[in-house]
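SEVERITY: medium
COMPONENT: batch folding queue
REPORTER: lab tech (J.R.)

DESCRIPTION
The queue accepted two submissions in a row. Attaching both inputs and their returned structure tokens so the on-call engineer can compare them side by side.

ATTACHMENT 1
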Amino acid sequence: MLFYGLCRVLSWASNRVDDEANNDHHDHSVTADDHVIIIVKELAGIKPSVLQSIPVVDFNSEDSKDSFECVVCLSKLEDGDKARLLPTCNHWFHANCIETWLQLHSSCPICRNVVGSVQDSGTT
């Protein structure tokens, strides 16, 4: 996925240089001495210590009137499933699903709030 994104950015940058050269009617040809710097945001999950601070619990549907679906795997959370409740937004997920997600992303897959420990979010 990162490789695909890098290829897309390089293609876009190359096309942009060509377009600018054609529009300006100046000699903006790229030479071997020119350097193009492209910054690609790395996939960055949360720190392992933050993940470990989010408790794994046995899901209990009696605690809520709503039914919950894990949007990572698209399966319903059933009573007794190992689950995690994200502290910043109160969204439920299967424990294994959200662990995998948070190794690659630093935000909730539902609302995109940045996931952090209770201390990091500014609440006590």
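ATTACHMENT 2
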Amino acid sequence: MHKTLVVAWREFRHTAMTKAFLIGAIIMPLLMMGLFIIVMPLMMEANTTPLTGTVAIIAPVDVIEEFQSRIESNENPNAQLIDQLPDVVTQDPLASAMLNQPIQNNTNIVLQPSTVENIETLKDDVRDGKVAALIVVPDTLLGKFASDSDEQLEVLIPSSFSPNHTDLLSSAVSKSVVDVRLRRLGHEPSAMHAMVKRPRVAATRLANDGGEKADNEAARRIIPMAFMMLLWIATFTSGNYLLTTTIEEKGNKVMEVLLSAVSPLQLLGGKILGQAGVSLIMLLMYGGAAMAGLVTFALLDLIPVSHLLYLVAYFTMAYFMIASIMAAVGSAVTELRDAQSLIGPIMIILIIPLALWPVLSEHPNGLVATITSFTPPLIPFVMILRITASTEAIAAWQILLSMAIGFIAVLGMIWACARVFRIGVLMQGKPPSFLQLLRWIKQG
């Protein structure tokens, strides 16, 4: 056991203590955490430099008065956009938190009414910084059939003008024009806006046990995919490391030196355990970055603790399945390109959960989901997707059966890998076919 642990530490050290791994697996997730914890809250505060100065406006008097009141009301310029977005976006907690943040404009502007005759002079004043902006509202936009007009509102600004301030002025003046149109037709704008405002839809799922739970469609689609991709990244990254290091050591004759000190099974066990530490770091770092994002937006309640426990269990299953496959293939070939012919068909099978993601997330208790839940090596990826996507708890017997089949398959795959590894690790020359690998398993 001591020799196995020594090999495991060597494998872990040679992979995890390299610059490439530190940047990809440590620094990048830390930067993501910093983005979520520090930068995103600052961005969501939406505090911008106050808009000050003189704003020239060429428009009818009633438009100017309406525009003045809107600027003073400090209205969120995103309000109209939010109202036009589909419910699946606006009812999602994350999107709602970002869109409905209060906008602190702190405007302190002076309106300067003017006429069309002075427009060229005012443009020069905007360029010179004497006037903060120039707004032009053609009279034709206020008529009864204004929608047939090709003319547009104009907001003329200097090159250094803030995009937030541009949105503020554009939103305020366009809404002012609409309200003035309504008033000229004898309607009260606030009543008309209330009449055409879309009502929000509250979808609630009624459970068989009599309980009720608000439905979150966006979270129900995104979170399952995030769990499966986290599992995929953590296991396949370390699996690829295991494949390449095994091939390199075999090609450089390092394997022969190692086998003079340890047995093939000790070497295999050490390599798999060492890369398990690498995979665990990937899972913790990228999972931690995702959790930091949920904490930042106060959405941590979207992920129950039970889902995290299932993630750990199925991660263990997935890693040892992938690691045994990669170690077996790596020991059987001497060059990376030879490994592709053996890994290719296996990868086609392993990407089935990704291809079936829309079906599995939409029908987590359907026939396809149930069958693939008991099919190694798809079990860990399909089950974590089903558990996180289902609005009702997956039957306990299915979870237990999938774990039983999965871990039995892990033992079988490790046993087969050990037989292939023992024969192939010292073999050179032409790479074996699948039939030859099966013979090695029987002979080993």
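NOTES FROM REPORTER
The CA atoms of residues 122 and 134 lie 7 Å apart.
No errors were logged for either attachment.
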